[in-house]
Amino acid sequence: MARSARSRSTRCDGFLALAFVLPLGLGSTANADPRPGTHLLAEVRGGAVAHDGGGLSLGALFGAGGKIPGFPPRFYVISEIAYSASSAQGLTATASALAYEDHRRYVDLGAGLRVYVPIFHPVRLFADALVGTTNVSSELQRSGLLSHQAEGWLPLVAFGGGVQVRLAYELSVGIRARAVITSDDIGGTRAMVGQTSPTRVSTTASLTWHF
After folding, report:
1. Which residues on adjacent β-strands are paired with residue 203?
2. What sign does the CA torsion over 20, 22, 28, 31 have?
3. Same domain, 6 and 70
4. How many domains does the chain have?
């Protein structure tokens, strides 16, 4: 009986030791490349937006940063330019219930911080947050009424995140989801159809150079 209890205790101790050492091993594997870390990145991406009937999403991002010694995450100060377009149609949520089409274009400029967290070589998760401004262009067409156009600059806050796979020392591919929070009721075009500004959500594939 005593021998059996000691055996169970030994197995439990072994499992606990494995549970403690395994994450350390993963972190070690994630940083197994002996070459020095890179400090600059340039990224291009393309995909689609999910709001207002969908549309095209393109962007480019530049960053500079690095790693704090002994601390796995890497931090980059980033700047970004993004373009998206969408086309929505339906009936206005107003008393007249007119058929409408709303064609919109956005050019976003932002700056912020990106954090990379290694999972296992060569996979990393990342998250970023930016503040900036967006140029909104809207062309609203309503049945029986003249076309209404408006354009202007508005503030924005953007959050992104995703996963990257390091194909080579200098190159990664990834998937990024991005959400832009802003009021885009430029010229009252949202109010004219009885809507409020949506959170602009996009999903893109990315190609990132590290140097």
Report:
1. 48, 177
2. negative
3. no
4. 2
Whether 103 and 204 share a structural domain: yes
Phi, psi at 30, each rounded to 5°: -65, -25
Q: Tell if the pTM clears 0.85, that is, is over it.
A: no
Q: Where are the alpha helices (DSSP H) in the chain?
A: 2-30, 189-192
Which residues are registered as beta bridge partners of 108? Answer: 82, 134
Q: Are 162 and 59 within one domain? A: yes
Backbone region of residue 26 per phi and psi (left: phi > 0; alpha: psi in -120 to 50; beta: other values): alpha
Same domain? For 192 and 133 the reply is yes
pLDDT digits (tens, 9 = 90+) for 101-110: 999 999 999 9
- Look-up: residue for tokens 């999403």? 57
In the DSSP assignment, the letter for residue 184 is: -
For residues 193 and 145, give the distance between their C-alpha atoms in angstroms, rounded to a whole number.
Answer: 12
Is the model's pLDDT at 4 over the cut of 50? no
Contacts of 1 (CB under 8 A, 6+ apart): none
Question: Taking phi first (over 0 means left), then psi (-120 to 50 degrees means alpha), and beta for anything else, what does residue 81 get?
Answer: beta
* Domain range enclosing 19: 1-30
